[in-house]
């Protein structure tokens, strides 16, 4: 019964079925195609029922493939010998030219193990891989793949069984504080469990890795903290295969107040001008020292403070071109002691920027009282779609401030951190298809969904990309269409598992490129994968310049934040490389960087080849000009004026819309959407 020898089966299969539901215990990731460390099982050598061994279509491995009958219930059963008990990865190689998904049910020794879908591959000679994670017992297991619908299953070439441990540890439980001082917090937790063994624990403070301890320990002390400051702690477990657990419970702990301290820090040394523009100068200096620790610096002009900062550099804006200014810096500690002033530094702002460079003008509040407005995208009528991260709701915001609730995103979940309803994109063909795209966190991970907006009603929800690993922090969330509208770019985080950045078998820690229907473009750099670039920690903002090049902002850990010019197939270094520090061989360096205390880059918009970047930690708006492949002439706006700057989008009138959040995104209903006029001095 060589069913495919006389022609394709297109048209004989009637309807598509969802590949995997949220109830299945499978991870649908595109496989690497590498058989290293895997055992191979040819389908033609397995037990076949309701199908035949065929060889009509080329490109298969072994001596043939199994052609399922056009009926439910046909199966291929493999005899798999496992060296250990635990979760294993099954990699199925298949072809499917029906144009519809052909799902199968999986059982192991008669026990249901979930379901896996086999999406269309375009031709019977085009072979693809899908993977499923299932539990096997040590010894012989009978793995059966049974056609779930009356359209049968796909052409099945082989099964690869990967014995590598893919099961993450359980989350550490009962995290608690066991002690504090003015600069330390001691924590303890109940040990995690793992099918192979826990090798380490990572201690995070609001998404930043602070310290790690071996898996034999269940306590840690973090040093170098600020006195009388609240810190938000989470602990994650790791196993030897670099699987990372979900976050356990979090605990907020305040350090003690400083003991009596009457010793001032040393004076900052070597103050210097490192950059300037017509209306700003950027200064840097060498760090002060203090017996209890320096907590910040004050920059003074004419005897009055103008800027305070945590780091050893800052920008002073609002100056007059050609006017001389003298600045001095002093340090302070937690007890309020201040150092002597540094030597004075003389600066004269000068106009070295391109004439007519856009800059912020009048700022108008369009909406206040929102709750972490994250996604922002414009409709053809000039109104914007705005998502609230943890209320899971999508709104329409008109330029006159009219605010209309459109509905909640089904299945959206929070993570008590950076998860929820995140990026929003409007189809370039919205006038014809009324389609909106949303990135959100769900039970099975982060995902991209597609929905139609008809009037004020959302209808026809459909997941086009799922299975993106999630965690409390580092969920990414950006969506950006290519200039031609043919591709949707998706930015993801590493789900607090640094090894994901370099792992091409997961969509975490990546920038992805898909078609608007969720299919994978054939010219992506890694065949069969959505991955466009990798080695990322947590990318949120993306935008294209006038040459059609993609730029992206990236959160660093404890050292440097980045802006990157994205290349097809490029490796951006994480976790070995942060900024330009660490092991960076073979990775693409950033185009600009900031200390994490002055960054937290989230929103990105490009106007006349000028990058505008909103920062959360730095609470400022950066502007940089694209000069070839470099970024030059940095200017700073709004420093500390509007709190944490989250999302930036360019509206149809050529102005910026900007969302803000306050107090580490925790004070509900205290956030805003702003309209920022862009003006062009000298034009």
TrEMBL record:
<feature type="region of interest" description="Disordered">
    <location>
        <begin position="147"/>
        <end position="181"/>
    </location>
</feature>
<dbReference type="GO" id="GO:0030246">
    <property type="term" value="F:carbohydrate binding"/>
</dbReference>
<feature type="signal peptide">
    <location>
        <begin position="1"/>
        <end position="37"/>
    </location>
</feature>
<dbReference type="InterPro" id="IPR011042">
    <property type="entry name" value="6-blade_b-propeller_TolB-like"/>
</dbReference>
<dbReference type="Pfam" id="PF00041">
    <property type="entry name" value="fn3"/>
</dbReference>
<feature type="compositionally biased region" description="Basic and acidic residues">
    <location>
        <begin position="152"/>
        <end position="161"/>
    </location>
</feature>
<dbReference type="Pfam" id="PF03422">
    <property type="entry name" value="CBM_6"/>
</dbReference>
<protein>
    <submittedName>
        <fullName>Glucose/arabinose dehydrogenase</fullName>
    </submittedName>
</protein>
<dbReference type="InterPro" id="IPR011041">
    <property type="entry name" value="Quinoprot_gluc/sorb_DH_b-prop"/>
</dbReference>
<keyword id="KW-0378">Hydrolase</keyword>
<dbReference type="InterPro" id="IPR036116">
    <property type="entry name" value="FN3_sf"/>
</dbReference>
<dbReference type="InterPro" id="IPR005084">
    <property type="entry name" value="CBM6"/>
</dbReference>
<dbReference type="InterPro" id="IPR008979">
    <property type="entry name" value="Galactose-bd-like_sf"/>
</dbReference>
<keyword id="KW-0732">Signal</keyword>
<dbReference type="InterPro" id="IPR013783">
    <property type="entry name" value="Ig-like_fold"/>
</dbReference>
<dbReference type="Pfam" id="PF07995">
    <property type="entry name" value="GSDH"/>
</dbReference>
<feature type="domain" description="Fibronectin type-III">
    <location>
        <begin position="267"/>
        <end position="352"/>
    </location>
</feature>
<dbReference type="InterPro" id="IPR012938">
    <property type="entry name" value="Glc/Sorbosone_DH"/>
</dbReference>
<dbReference type="GO" id="GO:0000272">
    <property type="term" value="P:polysaccharide catabolic process"/>
</dbReference>
<keyword id="KW-0119">Carbohydrate metabolism</keyword>
<keyword id="KW-0326">Glycosidase</keyword>
<dbReference type="InterPro" id="IPR003961">
    <property type="entry name" value="FN3_dom"/>
</dbReference>
<keyword id="KW-0624">Polysaccharide degradation</keyword>
<feature type="domain" description="CBM6">
    <location>
        <begin position="39"/>
        <end position="162"/>
    </location>
</feature>
<feature type="domain" description="Fibronectin type-III">
    <location>
        <begin position="171"/>
        <end position="258"/>
    </location>
</feature>
<dbReference type="GO" id="GO:0016798">
    <property type="term" value="F:hydrolase activity, acting on glycosyl bonds"/>
</dbReference>
